[in-house]
Specification:
2 domains, disordered N terminus, 3-stranded antiparallel β-sheet
Length: 446
């Protein structure tokens, strides 16, 4: 996807006034819109990635320290107001504008080591003489030629790629690829594990940019932006198991989930593991994003086990299904970025068709009463999942509703939500929310 990122930035940056100290959220958003290097979408959002080892950005765009400083100042003001997601997104865009923007880098948790901005785990590896390679993971740069020639390190000695594969053929002995937030175990190949780990780190950036308010409280936010105190490297990374084939995935998991053959990815809450398999047949990214987002929400410090068992389960599935619309792009000048919630991605088009043309809908007042088993036992799951994706998109992209939607998710995951909670938070009846949702879909259909 091509778009005039640099052109727009040049046109608006000179005209954008400096942010006033102490301004409110709306003023910050207005300043941000003037400084953006991309257009505002009618439906959907652009989400930028901070350039780092995992983003694979190779930008040829000249750095713009002036714009970066303005964005970084806005990020710190948003943090002062307790707006975590807004602060994270602004800081991210500051380092996109200027990868050496120190205040934004520090607020995002990067450390400068030997002249490079690295993630906390990257610094740990660098101190061991290792660098992240997009094909082989953490290796000594001096070993790259031997890796390219087909050799592999196995228990402190060099072996052939074939012997290395034999040693890791069983998933219990699979390759381990550790990053800042994830530990990927795979018996497919080292390269497949590294590719998946990098993709998951990108997803984590996007999720935090959109839902930092769910997982970061005001105290941690201020520590990040004011004192540059970060949580550090996760001692218990998200566990992801990447099976070599679908058959092996099915055989490994059928005892846990008898219907696993109907899935192409699954997250087990109690074991805190996400499982996927390598496939050239299926488009697996939507499921990867969906199940991994379940993992990110569920393993947040604010979440309890088994949320949504008695009611409100739609929102847990809806927000994960929203991430099925996530799409990666690279601009002409090498900047990697994502879009999410756009009209033709994911299930939003199906949601529009089913409501506006076919008349399918479950009223919100009924939907919020459904717990996990109630919802998953229905025979209309396909159209219902489209509706849940549409509703999550509607709430996530409506500026006045989005903060309350995040609070609603917090209450569900904390076991504090009731069927009336969403209506109470939004200050609207469920009939009014139904009508606003229809209007939202009609606007996309025009």
């Amino acid at each position: 996807m091509n778009h005039p990122f640099a052109t727009i930035c040049l046109l608006v940056a000179a005209a954008a006034p400096c942010a006033a100290i102490g301004q409110g959220v709306e003023e910050i958003r207005a300043e941000w819109e003037a400084l953006r290097s991309y257009p505002t979408l009618q439906c959907g959002q652009y989400v930028m990635l901070a350039p780092d080892d995992y983003s694979y950005t190779e930008s040829t765009r000249p750095a713009d320290p002036e714009v970066a400083k303005k964005l970084s100042d806005l990020a710190h003001q948003a943090a002062d107001l307790g707006e975590a997601a807004l602060a994270i997104r602004l800081a991210t865009e500051a380092v996109v504008a200027d990868p050496d923007c120190e205040p934004a880098r520090l607020a995002l948790g990067y450390e400068k080591h030997d002249g490079r901005w690295l993630t906390p785990y990257g610094v740990r590896m660098a101190k061991r003489g290792l660098q992240w390679n997009s094909t082989y993971g953490w290796i000594n740069p001096d070993d790259l030629a031997r890796y390219d020639q087909g050799e592999r390190r196995y228990r402190r000695r060099w072996v052939s790629k074939q012997l290395d594969a034999e040693k890791h053929a069983a998933i219990a002995n699979g390759w381990q690829v550790r990053t800042d937030h994830f530990n990927v175990t795979t018996n497919h190949s080292l390269e497949a594990g590294v590719a998946l780990a990098g993709k998951l780190e990108q997803l984590h950036q996007v999720w935090l940019s959109l839902f930092a308010d769910f997982s970061i409280d005001d105290g941690e936010l201020r520590r990040r932006f004011d004192k540059h105190q970060m949580p550090g490297v996760r001692s218990r990374p998200y566990q992801v198991i990447y099976h070599r084939t679908q058959d092996e995935y099915n055989q490994e998991l059928v005892s846990r989930q008898p219907r696993v053959a109907e899935t192409i990815g699954i997250y087990f809450d109690h074991q805190r593991e996400a499982h996927f398999f390598y496939s050239d047949e299926y488009a697996t990214d939507p499921t990867l994003y969906h199940e991994s987002v379940h993992q990110l929400f569920q393993q947040s410090d604010r979440a309890r086990r088994d949320p949504g068992m008695s009611d409100n389960f739609w929102a847990i599935e809806g927000v994960a299904t929203l991430f099925e619309s996530l799409r990666q792009h690279r601009s002409d000048d090498g900047v990697v970025y994502f879009t999410i919630g756009t009209p033709d991605a994911g299930r939003l088009a199906s949601a529009r068709r089913r409501l506006l043309e076919e008349g399918y809908r479950i009223p919100m007042g009924d939907l919020v009463t459904l717990g996990k088993r109630d919802l998953q036992g229905r025979d209309d799951l396909v159209p219902l999942y489209s509706q849940m994706a549409g509703l999550a998109t509607f709430f996530a992209q409506s500026p006045d509703l989005r903060p309350k939607f995040v609070e609603y998710l917090q209450q569900i995951y904390a076991h504090r939500a009731e069927p009336a909670t969403l209506s109470t938070l939004m200050g609207r009846t469920y009939a009014e929310l139904d009508a606003e949702y229809r209007d939202f879909l009609e606007q996309q259909a025009e």
